[in-house]
Specification:
The complex is a heterodimer of chains A (about 250) and B (about 425). Chain A folds into 2 domains: about 1-80 and about 165-180 and about 195-250, Rossmann fold (3-Layer(aba) Sandwich), CATH 3.40.50.300; about 95-165, no CATH class. Helices cover about 40% and strands about 30% of the residues of chain A. Chain A has helices spanning about 40-50, 75-80, 95-110, 120-130, 135-140, 150-165, 180-195, 205-210, 235-240, 245-250; strands at about 1-10, 15-25, 30-35, 55-65, 65-70, 80-85, 90-95, 145, 170, 200-205, 215-220, 225-230. In chain A, the strands form 3 sheets. A 6-stranded mixed β-sheet of chain A has the order 6-9-10-3-11-12, sandwiched between helices. Chain A is globular and about 55 Å long. Chain B is of the alpha/beta class and about 425 residues long. In chain B, a hairpin with a 2-residue loop joins strand 1 and strand 2 (about 90-95). Chain B is globular, with a radius of gyration of 21 Å. The relative contact order of chain B is 0.10. The interface between A and B is medium-sized, with 29 and 23 residues. The complex binds adenosine-5'-triphosphate and magnesium ion. The site of magnesium ion (MG) has 5 residues of chain A, from helix 1.
């Protein structure tokens, strides 16, 4: 599904290397978690994979279903089935949540050569998904994320994911800022989407999320590299001892 | 001295061989007086402070530059609105395409007819609000209009007009130079909405004088035509009585040169005025909103909201002034002008001004100029919306805040829908 090889990324504007050689292979149906200290490059990796401007890939490759994605526009990657749930979802005044979702869904369908969804089907789809995530009509009517609480923004990301049905979901700290119940809602939302050909890359600082979304593989990222890879037990180790031991071990 | 001379020469060149229209004695006098004002002021020149950001040359020169007619094949703007249609072709009233000039609770006539009637209510207004608006700033193109305009409508609302009066300005000739002058009186407690749309002419000079009596309500929504080469100078002069309401919105899309002046005097306590505009310019486009609101009564509210989206070297100008006279206590004045510059070639000039002589007032103004927010753009694209479409969504969202000033949602939605349609068509090339 996703294969990252020897990826090196620097900032376009500055001579600052952020990703310093990442290798990662994500198989269909798998959930990989990435943990790592603040500033280790987790979000940068997710941005580079989804096509944000401002970064320069100096070495390495990233392929999605065998296709090189690094030269694709963000919208092409989205249409190909890649989705990033943002660490900090932006507010978009003046663009209604529903209009936005519908435009996005139809744009992706169009790019894939599918018909646009009818208004009735769209409404039905969104209502159903919103209900599961306990997102009320009022929130759907508002402009995208405007005035949403931190937790509501994160739930809105998952709603978009549920509606767009991507095949590769990157969740960047979707759990941060969520209360216990909201975390459960979000985790259930993610788990509902788990199928044998959909994969997840879950970036998190907390083991707790991984109790709900049980990962197949856990990676520890530090200073732009994946320094250790293991099973779910690695997350427990981090939870208990922090990163100190791991970083010492690999140093 | 030489500058003033040149301005007067420009005026003489413009009025030479243009006899004043003939009408009743009061109209002839008003026109002659206006002509005298033009002669003494001269026409606007490059050095005028009030024209610092807009070169008036093509609005002033004796003959209009040619402007080709845009055939869009689209359904007419406001076409779905139940309205009383009044059609002008290159500035000349066209009875064949117009509805019968009659509607419950209003009196409506062509200007040429009203100006030919000895005893007419319009005599107290024709050129009168324009004249008041000449202080403290000269507006010679408006005086020129009062002197030369033959056509227009005069409307008196005596109750709640059941539907809007829709002025439709068709442009058929490449070289038309049109003047229209409308006089509107909204009587105490009456309500009227006037819609305007269309390019009108190769060069268009329009004046609308609106007198809103105590408790009257007037709404104005204007969509200036999209012909690329058209030029226009428009003036709205409004005087508001006690507890009256005056709201005006103008959409400008395309046009090489547009100057829209709005001069509003709040003369009765607790009057409310909102003036707003949205402009979309691409390439050879210069659009100037110049607004002057005078608070001359207590507890009045004024609000100005102007938004412009500019690309490929388009230029936008906003000059907005709030003048609060000494007795205008508890004035609530607000003004915002914002531009979205889609590239580095485009420019926005803003000159917000407050001049306040009363002590108990609340006035704020702001002006911003910025590019598309890349973070928002990326968010939309990351969800699959192609770049151009994502940018247009953000552009529409930006303009929507100005369109929200239109009270009638149907009208606002129609204009928003048009904008979306025009942008979609543009994307498709
Ligand atoms: N546009 C930028 N300009 C300057 N520095 C940047 C930029 N983007 C990322 N960085 C730097 O790159 C490093 C990695 O940042 P990144 O956001 O990827 O970390 P992270 O692992 O997601 O951290 P956190 O856990 O705090 O979210 C940080 O030191 C950050 O300051
Ligand atoms: Mg991060």
């Amino acid at each position: 599904m996703l294969e990252i090889k020897n990826l090196h990324v620097k900032l376009e504007e500055e001579d600052k290397q952020i990703i310093k050689g990442v290798d990662l292979k994500l198989e269909p149906g798998k959930v990989h978690a990435i943990m790592g200290p603040n500033g280790s490059g987790k979000s940068t990796l997710s941005y580079v994979l989804s096509g944000r401007e401002g970064y320069e890939v100096t070495d390495g490759t990233a392929t999605f279903d065998g296709q090189d994605i690094l030269d694709m526009d963000p919208e092409e990657r989205a249409a190909a089935g890649l989705f990033l749930a943002f660490q900090y979802p932006v507010e978009i005044p003046g663009v209604g949540n529903m209009t936005f979702l519908r435009t996005a869904l139809n744009a992706q369908r169009k790019a894939r050569g599918d018909e646009e969804i009818s208004s009735a089907d769209f409404l039905k789809l969104v209502r159903e998904k919103a209900k599961e995530l306990e997102i009320g009509q009022e929130m759907l009517k508002r402009p995208v994320n405007v005035g949403f609480s931190g937790g509501e923004k994160k739930r809105n990301e998952i709603l978009q994911m549920a509606v767009l049905e991507p095949r590769l979901c990157i969740l960047d700290e979707t759990d941060s800022g969520l209360d216990v119940d909201a975390m459960k809602l979000v985790a259930d939302g993610v788990n509902r989407l788990r199928t044998e050909n959909r994969s997840f890359l879950v970036i998190t600082h907390y083991q707790r999320l991984l109790n709900h979304i049980v990962p197949d593989v856990v990676h520890i990222m530090a200073d732009g590299r994946i320094v250790k890879t293991g099973g779910p037990e690695l997350a427990l180790e981090v939870e208990e001892n922090g990163y100190g031991d791991i970083l010492k071990e690999v140093a | 001295m030489a500058v003033a001379e040149a301005k007067r020469e420009a005026a003489e060149a413009r009025i030479a061989d243009r006899p004043l229209p003939k009408g009743a004695k009061w109209a002839d006098e008003a026109r002659a007086a206006a002509l005298a004002r033009v002669r003494s002021m001269g026409l606007p020149g490059r050095r005028d402070e009030y024209w610092k950001f807009t070169n008036p040359a093509t609005l002033v020169q004796a003959e209009p530059p040619a402007a080709s007619v845009l055939e869009t094949g689209e359904s007419p703007v406001f076409g779905a609105v139940d309205r009383l249609k009044v059609v002008f072709v290159d500035g000349v009233f066209d009875p064949a395409q117009s509805d019968e000039l009659a509607m419950e609770h209003i009196e409506i006539q062509r200007l040429s007819e009203a100006a030919g009637t000895d005893i007419h209510w319009a005599r107290d207004l024709y050129g009168a609000l324009e004249t008041r608006g000449q202080t403290p700033v000269d507006r010679p193109l408006a005086a020129l209009n009062t002197a030369l305009a033959e056509d227009g409508v005069v409307i008196r609302a005596t109750g709640r007009a059941p539907k809007p009066v829709s002025l439709i300005y068709l442009h058929k000739s490449d070289s038309s130079d049109a003047y229209l002058h409308h006089v509107i009186r909204v009587e105490s407690g009456a309500e009227l909405t006037v819609l305007e749309n269309g390019p009108a002419a190769a060069r268009f000079n329009k004046v609308m004088e609106v007198d809103v009596a105590d408790g009257g309500t007037f709404h104005h929504v204007c969509a200036q035509g999209r012909d690329h080469e058209r030029r226009s100078a428009t003036h709205v002069f409004a005087r508001l009585g006690e507890e009256s309401v005056f709201k005006s919105f103008t959409l400008t899309v395309n046009g090489v040169m547009t100057r829209n002046e709005c001069v509003i005097e709040l003369t009765g306590d607790r009057a409310v005025t909102h003036v707003a505009g949205a402009a979309v310019g691409d390439g050879v486009f210069h659009q100037d909103d110049t607004v002057f609101v005078t608070h001359d009564a207590q507890d009045c509210e004024s609000r100005q909201v102007f938004k412009k989206v500019l690309r490929n070297g388009a230029v936008g100008v906003f000059q907005g002034k709030i003048l609060v006279k000494p007795d205008a206590q508890r004035t609530d004045g607000y003004q915002i002008s914002q531009s979205l510059l889609l590239d580095e070639d485009s420019q926005f000039y803003a000159k917000p001004e407050l001049e306040i002589y009363a002590d108990d007032v609340q006035c704020s103004h702001g002006s911003t100029s910025g590019a598309i927010d890349e973070d928002l753009l990326f968010y939309l694209r990351a969800r699959g919306v192609p770049r151009a479409e994502a940018q247009d969504m953000l552009v529409i969202a930006f303009l929507a805040e100005a369109l929200e000033e239109i009270e009638d949602r149907t009208l606002a939605d129609e204009l928003l829908g048009r904008l979306e349609g025009w942008m979609a068509r543009r994307r498709q090339g």
